[in-house]
Amino acid sequence: MDGSYHNADINIYDNTLHNHSSHCLNFYCSNIYTTGRGRRVYTRPERGVPFLSNSDMMAQNPLMSCNYMSRKYGYDESSVLKGGMILTGRVGAIGQTAFVPNYWEKYKMMGSDNIIRIVVKDEFKNGFIYAYLASKYGNLSFWKHATGGVQPFITDKMVANLPIPDFPASFQQEVDDLIQESARLREEAADALQQAIQQVEDIIPYPSKKNVGCVSSRTILSSHNRRFEANYYISEGHDIEKYIYKNFKWKPLGQVCEDISRPDIFKRYYVQNGIVFLGGADIFLASPDSKKQLSKTKTTNITSLAIKENTILIPRSGTIGNVAWAHAGHAQKLVSEDVIRLQPNDILRGGYIYAFLSSSIGKALIQKHIFGSVIQHIEPHHLKLIPIPIIEDSIIDNIHKLVLEYSKKVGKAIENERKAISMIEQEIESWTK
Fold first, then answer.
1. Which CATH number covers residue 120?
2. Among candidates 323, 339, 336, which has minimal Cα distance to 386?
3. What's the structural domain count of the chain?
4. Of 378, 272, 402, 275, which is closest to residue 332 (Cα–Cα)?
5. Where does a domain end: 132, 164, 196?
6. Are residues 159 and 195 both part of a single domain?
7. Tens digit of pLDDT per residue, the chain (433 long)?
8. 1 vs 5: CA distance, rounded Å
9. Residue after which a domain boundary falls, among 122, 146, 164
10. What does DSSP say about strands 67-70 and 334-335: parallel, antiparallel, or unpaired?
11. Quick count: other Cβ atoms within 10 Å of Cβ 316?
């Protein structure tokens, strides 16, 4: 009886989609299911397997901020995500759809019970079906069936009944090839970035944890901003900082960057046809995008908000410690003033700085400077203090090349995926004329 079902935007296209569809999604699938809600026992990464939420499945690097489920007490084989699966959100993140690349399997990534798994039969093209479900029309179809008042949800049975339009076999093949190539490029990009980060962590051993310690009053009085928090002086970041001071030549991050800054707060003019405006979480998406768009004419500080490729992005609040490399998917878009921008100079290679900050070592150094109680923050002047070790030029160059390889392949993967989705949307639009 709810108006949102009968007045949904998809109804403009509903008759057209049904008239061009011979079968619903369940015809093409061997299984469409969610797992039951099991016992969640989170642990350290070395003792568990990655456990992905709705937001994690949409990230470029799901391992960056996911929880880890205990192998001993929480592992569930039925929850493991398999290469080629199509994932979509069951609660809240309805319409968010992801294609599982094969490399996820080597990590034995588990998925939340809030993720619907779509397993396409071998004789059909899962890349094509993913591209349709990820398109404007697939997204609208999901939302038509969403139910619930406070927190909307959709069931696997509802998803099974979504119509899948008929397209020529050659068209499906072309779309599928683009999606499969995109998945392959993402896997190669992930491998390149992991190699870069691993080289950093091999050269700079991670100091052992300390749970207690002493700090002299002189150190406190001479510290940055006269800080008094125990976790500033007795932390992994503090131990790593001392280790770098003692064992490496180093330079503060502020000296190896042309600029470390973020724009001031400004009045936002949201429009329907403007420039895409990314928030702090959007910069980590596999395909950075947002429904929010800012006016091209009324936004006075567009230049400071626009992101160039090869910029390093760090959230000022929220997921502090996560680091993004601006690639082709970020270029020509605007990013919130809540994201700090780092522009590396010629003293050290930008790719090396990014790999260092993306490592467990860099993350601990960033998080050392966190301040605030309810909402935690970090500011540019804190980041400028982080010591960057100066290692052999050949290793720095190699790490930099790996990061550029990562950037190039992610950019190409996003281009292929968007082309595939655009082909489907344009074809469906031609049916409505």
1. 3.90.220.20
2. 323
3. 2
4. 275
5. 164
6. no
7. 777 777 677 788 888 898 999 999 999 999 999 998 878 899 999 899 999 999 999 999 999 989 999 998 888 888 999 999 999 999 878 889 999 999 999 999 999 999 999 999 999 999 999 999 999 999 989 988 888 777 889 999 999 999 999 999 999 999 999 999 999 999 999 999 999 999 999 998 766 666 567 777 777 777 766 777 777 777 888 889 989 999 999 999 999 999 999 999 889 999 999 999 999 999 999 999 999 999 999 998 898 899 999 999 999 998 899 999 999 999 989 999 999 999 999 899 999 999 999 999 999 999 999 988 788 899 999 999 999 999 999 999 999 999 999 999 999 999 999 999 999 999 999 988 7
8. 8
9. 164
10. unpaired
11. 19
Q: Which residues pair with 314 in a beta bridge?
A: 340
Indicate if 425 and 354 belong to the same structural domain.
yes
| Same-domain status, 308 and 415 | yes
The model's pTM: 0.91
The tokens for 83 are 């290469």
Of 312, 396, 306, 384, nearest to 348 (Cα)?
Answer: 396
Give the C-alpha separation, 407 to 159, whole Å.
34
Characterise 224 by phi-psi region: left (phi > 0), alpha (psi -120 to 50), beta (else): beta
Do 213 and 115 fall within a single domain?
no
- Inter-residue contact 29 to 121 (CB < 8 Å): yes
Domain that holds residue 116: 3-164
Q: How many whole angstroms separate alpha carbon 302 and alpha carbon 271?
A: 14
- The amino acid at residue 173 is Q
User: Could you tell me if 96 and 205 lie in one domain?
Assistant: no
Distance CA 174, CA 229 (A): 58
Cα Rg for the chain, rounded, in angstroms? 23
Q: Are residues 203 and 125 in the same domain?
A: no
Amino acid in position 235:
S
Looking at the structure, tell me whether residues 102 and 201 fall in a common domain: no
Same domain, 289 and 202: yes
Tell me the HSE value of 338 on the side-chain side, using a 13 A CA sphere: 15
For 12, the token pair is: 């403009």
